[in-house]
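Database export, one record per block. Field names are fixed; values are copied verbatim from the stored entry.
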Amino acid sequence: MLKLDYMKITYDKKANTVYIYVNRDKIARTIEIGKDFLVDLSKRGQIVGLEILQASKNLGGLKNKPAIVIGNKPVLLIP
């Protein structure tokens, strides 16, 4: 289980990429966990963040106005 004390979500419209930061540690390595999904890890092996490439496609498509939802509150809408 991942306990979060920190979270920051960004969307790069030009690159169509979402990045979810869950830790402020420096990134030591990146692993691909699936097509268009990358996880950045610290030296200690802790998750620093998750990068989602082709976000509009991978998070539901433009027609449905995809969102990242935490609890029942959308925190990021992708145009």
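Remark 1: The chain is about 5% helix and 45% strand.
Remark 2: The CA atoms of residues 41 and 74 lie 26 Å apart.
End of record.
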